[in-house]
Amino acid sequence: MTVAVYPGSFDPVTNGHLDIIERSAKLFDKVIVGVLNNSSKNPIFSFDERVEMLTEVTAHIGNVEISSFEGLLVDYVESNNIDVIVKGLRAISDFEIEFQMALMNRKLSSEVETMFLMTSQEYSYLSSSLVKEVFRHGGEICEFVPNLVLNRMKEKYMEVL
Ligand code: PNS
């Protein structure tokens, strides 16, 4: 059984993330979506909210499980017998940072492998940060996030304002 982890902040999950989760679920026996629980990125959604949204939007994929990790990703990988880290690549600009992270993770734990999946072209410019920025300024984001996330965004920004 091959187990993969797809790690990230998911603040919030976008259609681009979902695309990578669905692609991974076809390749691996089990895909754990690992939500980072100590992000210094000041997320707008709480950890529980991010996990809840991910759980709902991946409910249709049988071999996907939502989980969380703190600290180093390689420690989580080792202690949960995970075989591979999956990352999505959107554009060349992702490559440099992902290359650094993959090599650092390999240095920290020589057994850890990272695999990269190309996102669909239609999501190649998408990121959680851009989605939040567009939404904050009144732009349309329904093409970029699942409906549930769109509704949670509306609620969240009503709270904040
Ligand atoms: O969605 P993000 O915020 O771009 O995801 C980044 C993430 C969570 C994959 C990365 O920051 C990470 O792996 N953090 C855990 C801490 C860690 O292991 N750092 C060293 C990575 S080389």
Write the layout of secondary structure elements.
Elements lengths: L2 E6 L6 H13 L2 E7 L10 H11 L6 E6 L3 H7 L4 E6 L2 H17 L4 E6 L9 H9 L10 H14 L1
Parallel strand pairs: 1-2, 1-4, 2-3, 4-5
4'-phosphopantetheine (PNS) binds next to strand 1 and helix 4.
Word description of this protein:
It is built from six helices and five strands. The chain is an alpha/beta fold. The N and C termini lie far apart (47 Å). The structure holds 4'-phosphopantetheine.
Keyword list:
binds 4'-phosphopantetheine, 161 residues, alpha/beta, single chain, five-stranded parallel β-sheet, 6 helices
Low-confidence stretches: none
**Helix/strand structural class:** alpha/beta
Q: How many DSSP helices?
A: 6
Percentage of residues assigned to helices: 40-55%
Count all strands and give the number.
Answer: 5
Overall morphology: globular
The set of bound ligands, ions and cofactors reads: 4'-phosphopantetheine
Helices and strands, in order, run as EHEHEHEHEHH
Main β-sheet description: 5 strands, parallel
Query: What is the end-to-end distance?
Result: 47 Å
Radius of gyration: 15 Å
Strand order of the largest sheet: 3-2-1-4-5
Provide mean pLDDT, rounded: 95
What fraction strand?
15-25%
